[in-house]
Each structure stands twice: as structure tokens, then as C-alpha cells.
Amino acid sequence: MHDGGTLGERLASVRKRRGLTQRELATVSGMSVSLIRKIEQDDYGQVRLATARKLAQALGVTTSALVTEPDTPVAEPESTQRWEPVRLALEGVHGDVPQEEPTLESLGRSFGDALPLLLVSKFDAVGAILPGLLRDADALVAFSTDGVQSDAKTLRSQIRQVTGSLMLHNWQFETADRAFALAMEDASDPLRAMSVVVNDAGD
């Protein structure tokens, strides 16, 4: 699905097709009515990707359906291929699996080492680390039980959020949407899941 025109025109079109008023969309997305009104009237200026993502999620469409327009930067084919290992790992397609099983502590330390790299925009370094983190997170959730599994899912949720943020920064909207959706599935606290690493990383 892709509507022509400006972001505001696309947002209004999708909202109306969903049968929502501006106030109802504001409630669902957690944004103000005035903000949505300004965006639809193209009076808001540049809209952050995080804002577009929240609106897209509330409307049940992809972020790219709202933000993509002729002069919007789009991913080149080689850029998409560049992030393919991350996308595959996000979907649980892993290559060689180490014999040593990951622990919550070791995975947490590795994740802690990777997060600062994202915050200073070292995207290639984060992209090289993420497939292993996603692989180990999947393994940890799979073989853990009880409280440990709950903690493992929380950590995997945070890793998936970082994956989504990295993909947003590199215009991989579909993969970003997928990563954020998977992060929400793992999160025990949906409100916390919407805010943690992604918003800290900025857009």
C-alpha cells in the first residue's frame, strides 16, 4: 500500500480508510490530537522516523507506507544486501552455532558492549555484532525455563529494539517494523518496550 502526495496526505488517507478520527488515532498512537492535525495539514515540518513508526503501527501499516515519497532517501540494493545477515538472524536463520551455550550474564555483557556503538552511529560495527546477539538470544530463550526464560525474553526484546533502530537509521523500514513487532512480542511490559533503547538512540 502506498498513497501519493505528502506525508500528511498519506496519513489522512490511511486514517480515514481505517475509520478513525484524528482524536481516535491520537489515543491509539499515544500522541496529541494537535500533533496529528499539524502533520496531516503539513504544518509540522520534518517528522521524526520514530513518530512515523508509531503512527504506522497504530494504523496497521508499514512505516515505509507513510514516509516514502520521491525525494525520501531509499535503500539502494547494495545497502539492503549489506544488512541481509541481520535480517536473516532476526528471522531465526542462523549459520554455524557455537557448541558453548550462551548465558544470561554473557549475553547481557555482549549486548552492553554493542549498545554504545549504536549511540555513536557506528552502524557497521553494530551490524557485525547483531547476528551473533540475535542467535544467542534465540538459543537462550529456547533452552531457558521459568524466571530465566522471562529474563531472556526481556533481553532479546532489547536486542530486537536495537536491531529495529539500526534498520531505521539505514532506511530498512520493513526490517525495522519486523524487529519492533518481535520486540513487542517478547516484552513483559509493552509500555517499557516502546521506549527503551530505540528512543535513546535517536533518529
Question: What would your notes on this structure say?
Answer:
By secondary structure, this protein is mainly α. It has two domains: 61 residues, lambda repressor-like DNA-binding domains (434 Repressor (Amino-terminal Domain)); 125 residues, no CATH class. Helices cover 69% and strands 0% of the residues. It contains 13 helices and no strands. Helix 7 packs parallel to helix 9, helix 8 runs parallel beside helix 10 and helix 9 packs antiparallel against helix 10. It is elongated and about 55 Å long. The C terminus is likely disordered.
List strands and helices in order, with pairings.
Layout: H1 7-17, H2 22-29, H3 33-40, H4 49-59, H5 63-67, H6 77-82, H7 84-90, H8 104-119, H9 123-143, H10 146-169, H11 173-186, H12 190-193, H13 197-201
Overview in brief:
The chain contains 13 helices and no strands. The chain has helices at about 5-15, 20-30, 35-40, 50-60, 65, 75-80, 85-90, 105-120, 125-145, 145-170, 175-185, 190-195, 195-200.
List keywords for this structure.
single chain, 203 residues, 434 Repressor (Amino-terminal Domain), 0% strand
What is the H/E order? HHHHHHHHHHHHH
Mean pLDDT: 81
How many distinct beta strands? Answer: 0
Radius of gyration: 18 Å
- Terminus-to-terminus distance: 24 Å
